[in-house]
Amino acid sequence: TIGRRKSAIARVYVSEGTGKITVNKRDYKEYFTTQNMQYLVEQPLRLLDKLTDYDIKVNLVGGGVFGQAEALRLGISRALVEINPDDKKQLKDQGFMVRDPREVERKKPGQKKS
To answer: What is the pLDDT of residues 4-59, one digit of tens each?
Structure first.
């Protein structure tokens, strides 16, 4: 499944396993160095108590590290719903099933910012 945020795209592959999360062939704790981003990635799994049930392999492209973490959270949430549709309400109530639509506004001529 796919998760997006700003210009970051996360392609998520979930399989039965021991709870190993691999991002771009590295462990996610090595890829996302701060506790805050690691927690963000684990949120949907913690909510459903499935932190050790699945192995997750992720390809992350584009954007900044924080946008990638949020894209990954959405991708994991969507994958968990694909596995068990009953979890959707719980994840949706926490706001994990909604793609944040905000994008950077284009630069306009004659103005400092947008």
So the answer is: 999 999 999 999 999 999 999 999 999 999 999 999 999 999 999 999 999 999 99
How would you label 52-68 residue by residue, b for 16+ Cβ within 10 Å and e otherwise? eebebbbebeebeebbb
Rounded Cα distance, 94 and 91, in Å: 5
Q: What is the C-alpha to C-alpha distance for residues 48 and 23, in angstroms, rounded to an integer?
A: 21
Block residue for tokens 């396993």: 17
- Report how far residue 19's alpha carbon sits from residue 14's, in angstroms, rounded to the nearest whole number: 10
Write out pLDDT tens, residues 66-85.
Answer: 999 999 999 999 999 999 99
Q: Is 38 buried (19+), middle (13-18) or exposed (0-12) by CB count in 10 A?
A: middle
Under 8 Å between Cβ of 107 and 39 = no
